[in-house]
């Protein structure tokens, strides 16, 4: 054991450690900043990892070429430059994302320019620190110096990844985390100049610190036409926003509309697709015998609240994100009771751990650009089937196009569900020829319902909701020969969804004279349709 003084970190050691913390912290944070515009698919994370590694490598290379001129003061300027760019990211990230998204690229590459613009420069600057620190190291020999720097940088990266993931993101907003990283960089830069306080670095440190405060205080510059932001937070899983537009309150998850409630008439279905959740009540033998219903995915809890209100049933909800449930209670009038219970748990794990049988299971955990892959696979569908009573029904809310470009994920999901269930049906929720909510219903027993059968049951059953228009949206079974069965070993959901990412997403709203499609979140290349179109000859689904 050496003397304690032998383990005292030098200034270059501190710089390397901080660069590791901030580079990996920014990489984790990049996912939260990019996701609302581009989703968090494998392509988005591939872009983030690629840009960060490329920028760091370029910084290492250039830093190595200039290492002979390395000094603590030069490292101080690099850290201040990085902090200054972080201030730009805090203030202008939304506008920079919109500008980058205007570049016409195929959907899978669309996030690359945005990641490069936002995070390429600061990561490049941080790449200089390691070779500079190795040059300034007091270790004997190149091997020992480089190994020492690699170890410190990696430890810093571990701390940055762990702290950002498990502490900062759940506790703070994006702006606050960026501000914290900026202050850490400024503080380290200032410390590198001590004990001799040089006027220029000191003044620059103060200026950058003020710039960070101003950027965070003003908030991101953006033009949001969705309405008034009632509540916004970063959860451990996603960005969550509650936005009021007139009398309609909407829950946005990672920038995508998820649930909505009419503040004047909370029982009204704002989105048409939530009415389709009642289709299983036409497929069971006797709706009066339905006792237990499970929703996988809560959102604004529109479906669970509606089932509890309309039927004499017990409703369980498996919602992974506790902040979503808390938000539903505070802003969407959710009240748990002896008949409605929210479980903070992943839907697949919930089913694996329960012995309870259900009459209806509603799978409502998908988003347009983000799908939990483990809930798409045939093994999960078989698990759900095993937890249904003999005449039980599964209904999956899938977001894709019903045919043509953008339909691959829907057709693969239909094929997978059909593999696990005796009979499978699908219903479109819009007449637009675009990405939309498609409801796939599957029965445990062999049923072979025709559209006429369901129309008759709708007329005969008093469900408290007329499903005539929903039954009219009955679709023939799709062609699934060219899409894979989704399994634990092979579930290429990202590839199947690639053609939907750049398409406009239509959510029909009740009471609309004409529903307009939600614009695509990103620009798309020539292989994708730029605009949704109504299907010729198919009338709009009535409210």
UniProtKB/TrEMBL annotation:
Matches recorded under Pfam families: Spermine_synth (PF01564)
Keywords: Membrane, Polyamine biosynthesis, Transferase, Transmembrane, Transmembrane helix
Transferase keyword on record: yes
GO biological process, one term: polyamine biosynthetic process
UniProt keyword Membrane present: yes
Active site: 364 (proton acceptor)
Disordered: annotated segments: 510-543
Family annotation (CDD domains): AdoMet_MTases
Domain PABS: 205-447
GO terms assigned for molecular function: thermospermine synthase activity
Signal peptide (residue range): none
SUPFAM superfamilies, alphabetized: S-adenosyl-L-methionine-dependent methyltransferases (SSF53335)
Transmembrane segments: 14-35, 42-63, 75-97, 109-129, 149-169, 176-197, 203-223
InterPro entries per UniProt: PABS, SAM-dependent_MTases_sf
Family, as annotated: Belongs to the spermidine/spermine synthase family.
Protein name: Spermine synthase
Organism of origin: Natrinema limicola JCM 13563
């Amino acid at each position: 054991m050496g003397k304690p003084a032998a383990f005292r970190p030098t200034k270059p050691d501190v710089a390397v450690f901080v660069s590791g913390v901030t580079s990996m912290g920014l990489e984790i944070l990049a996912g939260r900043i990019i996701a609302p515009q581009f989703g968090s698919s494998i392509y988005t994370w591939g872009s983030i990892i690629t840009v960060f590694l490329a920028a760091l490598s370029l910084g290492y290379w250039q830093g190595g070429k200039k290492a002979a001129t390395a000094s603590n003061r030069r490292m101080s300027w690099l850290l201040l430059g990085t902090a200054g760019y972080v201030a730009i990211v805090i203030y202008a990230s939304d506008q920079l994302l919109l500008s980058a998204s205007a570049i016409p690229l195929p959907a899978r590459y669309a996030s690359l320019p945005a990641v490069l613009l936002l995070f390429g420069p600061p990561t490049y600057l941080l790449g200089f620190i390691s070779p500079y620190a190795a040059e300034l190291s007091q270790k004997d020999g190149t091997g020992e110096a480089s190994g020492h720097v690699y170890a410190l940088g990696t430890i810093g990266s571990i701390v940055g990844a762990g702290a950002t993931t498990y502490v900062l993101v759940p506790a703070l907003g994006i702006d606050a985390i960026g501000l914290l990283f900026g202050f850490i960089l400024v503080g380290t830069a200032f410390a590198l100049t001590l004990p001799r306080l040089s006027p220029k670095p000191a003044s620059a440190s103060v200026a950058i610190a003020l710039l960070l405060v101003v950027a965070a205080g003003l908030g991101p510059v953006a033009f949001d036409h969705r309405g008034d932001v009632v509540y916004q937070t970063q959860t451990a899983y996603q960005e969550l926003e509650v936005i009021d537009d007139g009398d309609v309150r909407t829950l946005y998850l990672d920038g995508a509309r998820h649930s909505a409630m009419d503040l004047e008439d909370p029982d009204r279905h704002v989105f048409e697709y939530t009415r389709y959740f009642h289709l299983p009540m036409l497929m069971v033998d006797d709706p009066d015998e339905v006792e237990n219903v499970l929703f996988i995915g809560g959102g604004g809890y529109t479906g669970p609240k509606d089932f509890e209100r309309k039927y004499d049933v017990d409703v369980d909800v498996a919602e992974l994100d506790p902040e979503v449930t808390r938000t539903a209670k505070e802003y969407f009038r959710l009240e748990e009771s002896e008949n409605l219970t929210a479980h903070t748990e992943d839907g697949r794990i919930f089913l694996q751990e329960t012995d309870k049988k259900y009459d209806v299971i509603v799978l409502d955990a998908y988003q347009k650009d983000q799908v939990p892959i483990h809930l798409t696979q045939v093994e999960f569908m078989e698990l759900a089937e095993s937890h249904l009573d003999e005449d039980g029904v599964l209904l999956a809310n899938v977001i894709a196009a019903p045919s043509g470009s953008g339909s691959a994920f829907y057709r693969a999901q239909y094929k997978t569900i059909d593999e696990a269930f005796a009979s499978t049906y699908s219903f479109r929720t819009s007449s637009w020829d675009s990405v939309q909510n498609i409801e796939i219903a599957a029965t445990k027993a062999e049923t072979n319902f025709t559209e006429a059968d369901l129309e008759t049951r709708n007329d005969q059953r008093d469900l408290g909701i007329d499903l005539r228009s929903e039954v009219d949206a009955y679709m023939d079974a799709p062609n699934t020969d060219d899409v894979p069965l989704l399994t634990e070993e092979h579930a290429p959901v990202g590839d199947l969804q690639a053609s939907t990412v750049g398409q406009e997403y239509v959510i029909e709203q009740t009471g609309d004279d004409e529903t307009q499609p939600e614009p695509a979140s990103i620009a798309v290349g020539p292989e994708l349709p730029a605009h949704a179109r109504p299907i010729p000859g198919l009338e709009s689904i009535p409210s």
